[in-house]
Amino acid sequence: MRRLVSLALALALLLGMGLGTAAWSAEYKIGVAVPLTGLFGKDGELIRDAYTFWAETVNAQGGMGAAGKKAQVKLIFRDDMSDPQTSAKLVEQLITGEHVDLLLGGFGSGPIMAASAASERSGYPMISGAASSNKLFERKFKYYFSTLGKATDEVKGAVDVLFTQNPKPQSVAIIGANTPFTADACQGFKNFAEAAGVKVVHFELFPPTLQDYNTMLEKAKAANPDVLLVGSHLGVALRVMKAMKEIKFAPKAVAFSYGPTVPAFVQGMGKDAEYVFAASEWTPNLPYTGPLFGSAKDFNQAYFKRFNRYPDYVEAATVAGALAQQTVVEQLGLTPPIKAEDRVKIMEGLHKLDLNTFYGRVKFDPEGANEAHPPVAVQVQDGKLVNVYPAEAAEAKPRYPMPAWEQR
Amino acid sequence: MLILQALLNGILLGGVYATFSAGFSLIFGVMGVVNIAHGEMIMLGAFVTFYLFHLLGLDPFLSLPLSFGLMFLLGYLLQRLVINRVIGAPPIMSYILTFGLHLVIANTALLAWTADPRTITTAYSGASLSLGPLHLPVVQGATFLFCLAIIYGLHFLLNRTQVGRAIQATAQDREMARLMGINVGRIYALTFGLGAGVTALAGSLVAAFRYVEVGMGLPYTIIAFCVVVLGGMGYIPGALIGGLVLGVVGSLATAVFTPGWSMAITFFLLYLMLLFRPAGITGKGIVE
Fold it and tell me: If you classify domain A153-280+375-407 with CATH, what class do you get?
């Protein structure tokens, strides 16, 4: 009898512990390997802020899950130091060591390329909003998704806005740094220009360590293009603008794939940044609206309230990725802990997803890129970045053509 | 016309190359130390200028004395406390030590300032004079004149002053210099300070027309190495010759072929020089 009692007690204890454990684990553990130091340290902090903002918003509304099944979200960040191998290792560790329910993507095509290979192997969906090298999608992974388009498609907004101007540009020169992301952008420029029947009169890639930008740009100038298109990061964009002024090269317009949307561009270039076009994926004035955050404008304001700064489009895309995964989890009525077979369903759900959000429409193509996202372009006008494309939602008309340097 | 413009651009570039390579050459010539953290001196000089401009509104050219002073001090202390331990040791020791310094300085800067590129735009930024069909950018032109002045100043200092002669004597024969009453430790520290200071000047000058970022150092170290091999290791006017040759060759390669060729040809020249003329174009470099 005594034995029976002690057995019953032990059983009760175990059950209690079991229940207790169940109660403690009634939260979604979501792992993120993100660069917080190293080359992308600053960018990675934006990603951390974006996910934090999403999680806080979700938790304030009771958590993630279908009505009545909501559970809190807990984010686990690991610093991958901007290193691809580390990123992959951390993802494996999050899966096997921390037993996370879900993952989200970090920053940069390099680290995410490695990290998503690790998550693919383990059958964990990974959505990122901060990597767009075409190579990510050429792998035809089933579990990798991106709320951004492919790098070649991302520049479409900058090209479209120029080719709808009057008079329409007849020729373009394309230059860019010979790194994966910027070379993809140049290829995208070329594809869209040719598709629009515009002549590409000069196409040149240069090494990122190029010393003499003036000579390189003299060649583009000599081709006398109506428009200069540049595949760039921030540093390249800065040097191209400086060199253009020095050699008095003023085509009708200049557009960059990336760089001018970073606040340091306008801050650093001052008045010389005027008239510059840049491709973008999102601006807060766009007429998008969706669950959790309301409209693009609401999101922008709430983000400012939380961090005392406005979000970059990469942050909006990152939050949209978390929101997409949340939507599928809720559609499936899942509760934590999420099992391996559930993750297969999430992956399938993501492939079928067609969601309108504050960031715009999210619909993944079979390779995982966001195919539904409309191209966006911005221009520097009076020291501010304003949305100039798509025309129906634009804050301002594009300023075109750009005047000669002596006349500004 | 493109060729003429490329020639002009190359000469302007060469002046900058010469300035940041002169310090590299000096330090090697006197101490036999190949300073792999050389580019970080450029980066730090550029940041001094950037912050003086952004916090105090100081013109980049006016920040030169402070940039020199601060980096001279840092260089002096670095030599006294760190580099001095490997003087006279096999060269590999100085490679490892200065490579370590490169990592420490670059990563500390990364923590402090992040990887964002920054830039300085003054009222005269981007202005250029028209020489017929050619463009002479004002800032780069002024930088070139400063570069000539710095190289000449350094050459003058080494050949016409007491300290300079002491530095040269130490470079030629350390033991003999010591016997002649020269404080060799102090000369080494002065030389390293001088090298770092001059290099920082180059950093301050490029900050005015390029951008400033923590990762900018290493490419400069590589170029400095090529320039100094071309001009002759340890021979200061050689830095000017090597710089001009590399600048012009790089710009012409960009104009005639593609920008990718400019670095390829630079390294090919380096290879040829090391193979056939290790003492540099002038033949006055040190060969060990």
Answer: alpha beta
* Fold (CATH) for A25-149+285-362: Rossmann fold (3.40.50)
What is the C-alpha to C-alpha distance for residues A384 and B89, in angstroms, rounded to an integer?
57
Which residue of B118, B127, B263 is in closest CB contact with A209? B263
ipTM over 0.90: no
For residue B210, which residues of chain A lie inside 8 Å, CB to CB?
Answer: 239, 242
Cβ neighbors of A149 (< 8 A, separation 6 or more) are A132, A156, A281, A369, A370, A371, A373, A375
Yes or no, beta carbons of B262 and A210 under 8 Å apart: yes
- A246/chain B closest Cα distance in angstroms: 5
The 10s digit of each residue's pLDDT in A240-274 is 999 999 999 999 999 999 889 888 899 889 999 99
User: Is B255 at the interface with chain A, CB within 8 A?
Assistant: yes
- The per-residue pLDDT for range B205-235, each reduced to its tens digit, is 999 888 899 989 998 999 999 999 888 888 8
| DSSP code for A260 | T
Q: Which of A39, A212, A234 sits opposite B251 (nearest CB)?
A: A212
d(CA B14, CA A161): 40
**C-beta of residue B112 within 8 angstroms of C-beta of residue A259:** no
Domain boundaries, chain B: 2-115+135-217
Shortest distance, CA B24 to any CA of chain A (angstroms)? 19
CB contact under 8 A, A264 and B110: no
- Indicate the domain borders of chain A: 25-149+285-362, 153-280+375-407
Return the SS3 of B127: coil
Which stretches of chain B are DSSP H helices? 2-31, 38-56, 64-81, 91-113, 138-160, 162-172, 174-179, 184-207, 217-231, 236-256, 259-276
Q: Does B122 touch chain A (CB under 8 A)?
A: no
